[in-house]
Amino acid sequence: MDTETETSKRIDTETEIRALCNRVHRDRAACTMVTVHRLLPWIASTDGELRDDLVYTALYDIFEAETLQQGDLEWVLAELVSDRYLFRGLGPANGDDVFRRSFSLLVIDAILETQPARHMPGRTLQQVWNAYRDYVTRENDLRGYVDGKGWAHSLAHGADVAYSLIALNVPGKTDVLQLFDIWRVKLSDGAYVFIDEEGERLLRAVFAALDVGILDEDDLCQVAASYGSTPVSNDYPLGQHAGENLKNFLMCWHIHADERRLDQLSTATYEALQTLKRQRSKWY
Predict the structure, then answer these.
(1) Distant-in-sequence contacts of 209-215, Cβ < 8 A, 24+ apart
(2) What proportion of the chain, given as a percentage, has pLDDT over 90?
């Protein structure tokens, strides 16, 4: 009997999952696909400690141990980008399914960090990129930390996936520019004020695109200008929140460009900030 059929017949209790996670940390022999099959459903838990500190960490340890075959990892990626995980429950802005979606992204990123990921077929990695792009376009729940349930953080977790795929040189220039424009729309939505280092996570991918040569400095200057000239609603609080998100992101971008001695980009981000400031003068 294959492991998927075997494990699908059993339903673990929370106590069993906690014990299994602890076993993974102690025993490399527990780093198997059977364990992965048992743990994956629990990334949807609304118990932040169980989901973050135990289940996700155990899955990360399994992938880092590199005991699984490349085909096994490809199966996990395909499962995670399916309607059962990454696209489960899209629509409502405050539903608990966001944890399943967001932690699917973290598990995907854990796989992308492994050595076998460097040898996966390009079509497999491109499919992951396409799935992430479609997901982030449709994701409405952009909350960071949720009281009583822990991190949702869909935008930041997705940025980690984008960073890893860009570092692997998976997407082309058009793909990356399209993603950065999707992020611009999300930042200017105004439904949430991003206060949990989302900007820093996004910028890792921005600068990775420069580092691997997908984009050049001129490209990033044009992207920065588009962020600064993004129309901001006159309505309060949405317009105020959108302006704050764009301002904070561009300020962070400007600081990083300055630290890297990217003079052209440093100037472009400063000018983008000034453009945004002129548009937001109505608030002051």
Answers:
(1) 209/166, 209/176, 211/167, 212/166, 212/167, 212/169, 214/166, 214/169, 214/171, 214/172, 214/173, 214/176, 215/173, 215/176, 215/177
(2) 88
